[in-house]
Design a protein that fits this description.
Helix content: 10-25%
Shape: rod-shaped
Number of domains: 2
Strand order of the largest sheet: 3-4-5-6-7
Order of helices and strands: EEEEEEEEEEHHH
Number of strands: 10
Number of helices: 3
Structural class: alpha+beta
Distance between the termini: 128 Å
CATH class of the largest domain: Mainly Beta
């Protein structure tokens, strides 16, 4: 406020005083800056989880550790593991696995990947409507994880993941007469007594 104008934009009020431009009630205010719209994919805000591929025997085919925010649990984020026959989700705990949930691959209805700019979401839904979702999967892992699960589902439905049972050849047939002849030879050579020969012979006869 001043008794005289102090520069361009200053304006005089009804009280005769001069005021700075920003105090003019008729001045147009710039519209508020809108925040960037949220990404359609949950992992695109820069807070993703961590994934690790394995052999499926000593380690999971894929283990995904969700971020504390994407996993929905601030202090115990979920861990999702893909095995050859199932996918399981549980809270990460130093000692115990809590609230473990799993879907066997022969019960899977569909596997979907939603891709964002940097991260993807991979979801597995069972025929009963239960879902396990990996949110914020590194984009390079998304398609690989889906391919692994698709193959595991196919194997579970066709049984191709089970090793083929070895075929045991039938045992050769030996006649009773041949066995008695062998016993007689052992008796004649002195390896069996007459009493032992008679006992073994009686066991062979019906």
């Amino acid at each position: 406020m001043s008794d005289t104008s102090q520069g361009p934009g200053w304006w005089q009020a009804t009280d005769g005083k001069w005021y700075a431009p920003e105090l003019n009630p008729e001045a147009k205010q710039a519209p508020p800056t809108l925040a960037d719209p949220p990404s359609e994919i949950s992992g695109d805000n820069g807070d993703a989880g961590e994934g690790q591929f394995g052999d499926g025997v000593t380690t999971p085919l894929y283990e995904f550790k969700a971020s504390r925010f994407k996993g929905g649990r601030m202090f115990s984020p979920n861990v999702i593991r893909v095995w050859a026959d199932r996918i399981e989700e549980y809270e990460h705990h130093a000692v115990l696995k809590k609230n473990t949930e799993s879907i066997n691959f022969h019960q899977v209805a569909q596997v979907k990947v939603r891709k964002g700019m940097r991260y993807s979401d991979v979801s597995v839904e069972s025929t009963g409507g239960h879902s396990i979702v990996m949110r914020g999967v590194p984009k390079g892992d998304g398609d690989k994880v889906k391919a692994i699960i698709d193959k595991a589902v196919h194997d579970a439905r066709t049984g191709s993941q089970l090793p083929a049972s070895p075929i045991t050849p039938p045992a050769p047939q030996v006649s009773v007469a041949d066995e008695i002849a062998k016993l007689a030879a052992l008796r004649d050579s002195g390896a069996l007594t007459d009493e032992e020969f008679a006992t073994h012979k009686a066991n062979l006869l019906p």
